[in-house]
Every structure is written in C-alpha cells, then in structure tokens.
Amino acid sequence: MRTPPNASRSSKKILLLLVPALIAAQIAAFVFLHLANRRIALQSVDAALQAGADVFSYSRGIRREYRLLTSQLVAKDYGLLDAIGNGNRTTIDSALMNQLERTGAELIVLTDNDQQLLARASSIGFFKERDPKTDADLAGLVAQISDRSGNLMPLPATDERMPLYAWVKTVVRAPVPIANMYLAYRISDEATAQFSRMTQLSMAYVSRERNPAGAPWVVHASTLPPDLLAGKSMENEVSADNSTITTPSGAAYRVKRMPMGGLAGHEVDVVVAKAFAPVLSPFIRLESLFAVSIVLSSVVSIAAAYQIMRSVVNPLEGVAQEDALTGLSNRRFFEASLRHAHQNLRSRGAGFTVMLMDLNKFKQVNDTYGHEAGDTVLIAVAQRIRKLMRSTDTLARLGGDEFAVIMRTDDRARVTGVAQAIVHVVAEPIQLATGEWVEVGTSIGIAPASASAASGAEVVHAADLAMYAAKKGGGGFSFAAEDQAAEPAAAVA
Fold this sequence. Notes:
Oligomer: single chain
Number of helices: 11
Order of helices and strands: HHHEEHEEEHEEEEEHHEHHEEHEEEHE
Strand content: 15-25%
C-alpha cells in the first residue's frame, strides 16, 4: 500500500538508510550478474553437449550406413560366394581374410542359416587360431545381432585396455539366403579423438556387464581426463539430462550420458563432457570490470544521494502527508495520488478506481462512549482495511470517519472483491479500551475512472454520489453511473 513519507525523519537518518541501500543494490546487481553469467555459461555448455550428441548420433548413423553398404558389397563378391558354395572352411577363411582390409573390419564371422559357424577371419590375435570353443562362443554372440543399431560389445584382446566393437549384419544370397555375415569394427582412439576435435567435447565409450549387479564400468576409447569418472556412479552422477562433475584436481565438467545398447549381457554408454573453465573465462573478466564499476558508481551514488537530500528532501520534510491518528495517508497525499493516477490514465491508458466510504453508526459510538472510543474505532477500521490493500493502492483518511481508496485497476471483479472484503471486516465487532464491544458498518461509493473524465475530481464526485446511494440502501457498496444501486451481494451494515 502506498504510504506517505515520515515527516519527522531527518535527512541524516534518510542518508543512513539510503547509502547502505545503494551499496546493497550494487552488490545485489553484482550477485545477479554472477548468477546470470553462471546460468548463461551452463546453458552454453548444455547446448554444446546437446549439439555434440546430435552430431554424434548423425555421424554414427552415417558410419553404420557406410558399413552396411560395405558388407553388402562383400556379400556379393563372387570369390566369397564360390568359396561358400564349395563348403571348405579353409577356403572360406581365406576368402574372408581377403575382405578384412577391404572393409576395415577386424573380425568377420560367417554362419549358416541355422546360426552354425561356417568360418571366421580376424586381424585380432586372440581370434586368429581355430578353436571349437571360440567358434561356439562367437556363434552364440552373433546370433544376438540384429539389423538395428546398438550392436556394441567389448571383445577380449591382448591390449592393456579391452577394445569395443560395433557389429553389422548382412545376409549372403545366391540368390536365396545361404549364410549370415557379421563384421566387427573396432571403436578406436583415433575416431574418438576426431570427434573431440570436431565438437570441442571430450568423449568416452564405457561398458559393463549387466550381471552381476553393480559390475564396474570399463572405459574403452576415450579422450576424457583420466580422473573424470574415477569413483563416480554412472547411475546417479552421470545422467542423460546432463550432470556437473568436479575432478579431484578441481576442474569442473558438464557431462552427458548416452545409452547405446549392447550385446551378450553388456551395457554400453557414450559419455561426452565439456569443461566449464573455457566458457567461464570471458564472464570472469566481465565480472572483474563490473566490480570496479560498482566501487566507482557507489561513490557517485552516495554523493548524488547527499546532494538530493540537501536540495530536495529537506524542503519537503515540513510537509506532512500522514494522518496523525491512523497513520494512513491524509487528504493532501490522496489528492496528489489522484492527480498522478489521472495523468497515467491520460498518457498510458492505465485505469484506476476511486472508493469513498464513511462509517455507519459512528456518531452513535461517539455520542455513547466518547471521542476516545471513536478514535479507537477509526484506528481499528484503518488497520483492517490496510491489510486488504495492494502495494499499488492508496488508502487515505480524508477526515472524520471518511476514508478513500485509489485502486490502480479498472477490473470490476477485482474491485468488487475488495469492496465486499472491506464491508465484511468493518462490520466485525471492535473492542474498546473499556472492554466493551461496538459494531459499525460502512457505505462505499465506487467510481471507475473514465477516459473522458476531465479530472480526478470528477471521479471522486461520482464516487461520492454512489456512496450516498449505498447509504440510502442501508450500507454496503454501490457503483457509480449506470449501476447506482448497491450490489446485490453487498453486505449491509
């Protein structure tokens, strides 16, 4: 609720309040800038992560299509078809070996239509030697490979770090299906590093066995800092919705996890990460400059505030704009607020509404219990109505038992609700200093401001006429102009 300034407050006291407020405002601005910078930086990092994820998904699809086309060309190779037709494993193995360099795969497995292994060829040392158990294991593995994506699985190797392979499947036809061919492509550090250079993101392929539960995650091809995922729970700390992780060295990263599927009881994910430091660096420089500007602007603000106090506030301190009894605005402040509301209506079309009200049975209280009791009633009514006001409303005591309200709205439903609430709270009993209880009511006249009103005084006059209409109706409230009668729902004092 709009209230008048305290005329008894000295310029010194105002300065003691204003100067800390100015400094606090500068600090608040800095804090806001700091938080806004962090939010913008976070949004930038998250956008980069999402863009990187989109690029990865697209390039992954392109690579898979390329590999499928390559495998389909191999499946049509006459030499391979002739070797399969002969049924000699040595011949088929030799034919498959010739295709390894052509396709870029590290392992090719061939099975018949019943998923029995016919032959295999590999540049991986572990799979070079014939071994019935390995043949059976590979046959069981490739039986799970579908034509969809997500065919990822680590394979044992002599390397220090277990490699991860992406599989593609194609059907060998002559012209009817005679075999299934599976090609395994190693996901290399070089391909991962190329992705990192292209997107400015760090990246890693990780996998684990789904059973037993809680099996550790194994890092395969990676450009992530070695300690980024150390001791982290992939389920709780690295999510698909982005997470913030701080390494033991104190570097902060934004991390995104992308599930990739898996084979043979393995779960494979891709983790992409971006460091905060490069993104935050420009913002930190900006904050340093802003901190210097805060110090300078604070000094200027304090000097300006002092000058304003001496030149403007001091001459106005003697002008009282507060009702001494109730602490509400007085008539002077009400009239100034009315002029300001009317100016806003003319210049910006901002509607407002005036309420005039006086108390029913107030003279009876004065005559029966005395003027001190009347003062008690006025104070209680003022406090009750004050609680119903918004910060933009002006509540004033015009004199005697007459009050006025300027509401910065022309919403009839909102105004009606406030009027009903005022009628209700004023009608509640009031206890006097003697312990006795009295009841008063109120009559309210309401006048929404019209754009054609020549002045605020016309609006007040219309509200005054409506107030008398409400009083004649026994109390409650009445709208001016076409609605002179009291509202049907209005309470009667």
